[in-house]
Amino acid sequence: MGTSTLIAAVASGLMAGLFFAFSTAVMPALGDLPAEQARAAMRRINVRIRNPLFLLVFAGNAVLCGIEVFQGRYVGGLLYVVGSFVLTMAVNVPMNNRLERTDDAYWPMYLRRWTLWNHIRAAACLAAAVTLSLGL
Fold first, then answer.
1. What is d(CA 99, CA 43) in angstroms, rounded to the nearest whole number?
2. Per-residue pLDDT averaged across 8-21, rounded?
3. pTM for this one?
């Protein structure tokens, strides 16, 4: 396994862990709070997550996995690019943006839908880490 593949596999694993933590701990904990508090906390998380280290791993790995696709490791590369990066940009980010613009009545639907799609992102990143490690 080459260095870029190893880095892509590790970064995919890091993202799987982050998404797993959100699915299994953060979102259920927010679900225990009143909508006003949960929404405020999630809005703050959405601000804080946009930091250089997160963006390096999240977006940088999309670039690395794109390179992996062009080097013939289609499965692992596409699992990350589509299952993490594209899904985040097409589903989770628009939901986060709507959370900023709406009132607390949106929170219950947001919590269910966001978490469901986050489960998919976690699984896709884990699958990307495994398949990249296997050279697929």
1. 7
2. 98
3. 0.94
